[in-house]
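User: What would this chain look like folded?
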Amino acid sequence: MDYLKTLERDISGGPAANSSIEPLSRRMYDAIAPVVDRIEKGKPPTEAPRAVVDDAVGLTDPTPSKSTAKS
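Assistant: Here's the prediction, encoded as structure tokens.
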């Protein structure tokens, strides 16, 4: 829950938000929150909850490394 709160803060634009990671935080939150919402208190799940995140996605505006930057 602490992680979801941190992600929510990043996507909300509040005073403690980190706008540079907002797109990644939104993707993580959108993947994890529905899985957590399906967990019912006091009722053990029949299988382990699983969230899938597309790891091929990076930040929307990455800074090129020295090895890929053109001179």
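The mean pLDDT is 76. If you want, I can go into more detail on any region.
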